[in-house]
Amino acid sequence: MNGNNGDSRGREMKRSLNGRILRNTLLNIFVLVLVCCGIMWAAMQSLANNILLDSLQPMARQSAKTVEANIHMLADRMMNLAADPRMAGEADGGTGAEAEEALRAGREQVLTEAAEIYELYTIGLYDPEGHLVQGVNTAPETVDSAFFSLLQETDNLTTDSSTRFQDGLGITMGMPVKAGGETVLYVVGVYKYDTLNDVISSINLGRHGIAYMANHGGDVVGHPDQNLVLEGKTMEQLCGGDQEVAVRVVSDETGAAEFSAEGETMLAAFSPVRGTQWSLVIQVPKADYGSYINGAILVAVSATFVVLVVSVLLVLRLARSISRPVKKMTDRMVALSDGDLHTEVVRIRSGDELEVLTRTLGDTVESVNRYISDIQRVLTQVAEGNLQVAPQVEYKGDFMQIQGSLGTILRSLNDTILGFRSAADRLAEMAEELNGQSGQLHRASMEQTRSTEELVDEVSHVKESLASVTESSSQTRRKTEEIAQCIQEANTRMDALSQAMDDISGNTRKITKIAKDIEDIAFQTGILALNASVEAARAGSAGKGFAVVAEEVRQLASRSSESAQSAAQMVGSTKTIIENGVELTGAAASSFREISAVSAQISDITDQLVTAVQGQESALVIMEERIGTISGIAEKNLQNAVGTEQSSSVLAREAEALQDQVKRFVVKEGRRR
Predict the structure, then answer these.
(1) Fold of 418-671
(2) Which residues are 214's β-sheet partners?
């Protein structure tokens, strides 16, 4: 199940890697193409504007020069008219009327010829005050004051800044007529507007490009649409209200500008017409060249997309050349994660990082395989009990920590097994010693049981004797009145009583000795139990059960000692009573000669003796009970001794088994500290 999960994860990872390469590369290329197209579009738009503006400026200068040449041609004609001698001739004084008529006829001829030849609307001579002297073709009576003032001021050829003449358009020029170096008249003519209109109309740029002229006052003086001139349109109006462009045009500046007029972007170039107050403006809608610009951009974008497709194909090929080796390495790494250390890593001969990666992966697999084999060998030897084994492979890098850990584990196991071996030896010695002590305790317990049984027998005998004493005392009481008659029998009985008393005294001494022996045995049992507890503590967890048994034996021994002391005290009390009885018996024997006289006293003494015997009998009953208790304790001691002996035997067997297990390991004795 884990292997299948690992394979699915590997496949997902491989698909993800290949997809990520393609997605990221394509995304980067698309973004790059979009950015480049945007930059290219902006750059081409800006470049087209700059190219158009740069190309319009020379065209504007050239057109202005063309207009200037035509104006110069008209000016030359006007200068020739002003220099004609017939224009400045004077009538002789003698024949004033004829001379005046001849002068007027000559001027008329000159003016008429000029009007016909030079295509003038009208032409006339004006005096220094600006009044018509002589003219043809309905020459106006006066000249525009501004123009005439400029003509007088310059005293040279002057062209009117306005082209409006009466109800039409014309080019008004004036030239002073001199006589003797002095200005006597002014010839003023109005050329037909066609001369200027032909030049303006001949300038065709794009589908909607036009050329027009404006004077320094900002008025349009020349335009293909003459109505705009007649309506008095201004440069600012034609520029869509852009005052900056209008100011640049009327200030005799040569340049180019971009502005918006009626919602349409216009490109304009302008240049002054020398010798006049006019400036020529060439204006082209940017949209006229938009199709060319857009076509160029489309071609560039198409070429870019072709390059993009080629790039995608190259990237796809490159991605496959990278992803296939990476897939192989990924499959091998997935197999390695599943525990496969034997499948060979396919080496890639690409001469780049992939080759280094596959070679490194192969070396890693070989190193890991070599390390795991060495670790397996070490662990197998340890499992077989050989702790003298050591790693035989040279570990490198962080794997040196594994080598150090193996060494630490082996040293720790070696020290542990040595410690177990030493502990097993000590445990075996303690078990042997405890076994011996348990045997001694068992024998002592058996001896204590036998002694207790003998003590019980002796107490029973004493009890029977006391019963006899009680019976005798009763008889003595009954026979008191017959003492005198039975003195001989009484002496005999007194002898028997003395003998019985001696026997009781001897039995009391024996009971005292037995109690002392029981106390000594209990003392020895307590010492043995204490030794057993010490040895059990040394044995650790293996001796816990034996420690409990030893503690129980010690407590039983203590109780046995206490019971023996109580029995000794009771026996001592009994001995004292018996000795009193012996003394009383002696006194009775010595006083038997006075029995007859003191029978009443003997009766009292007999009552006292019965009471004392009854007390002794009660004491013996208590003593018998205490001795029974001692017997029970002795029996328990015997049972505990048997259990202790069995436990010590089990402990000895376990210690022997532990030694056998420890001896399986081959250790380095010199490594133990």
Answers:
(1) Helix Hairpins (1.10.287)
(2) 220, 279
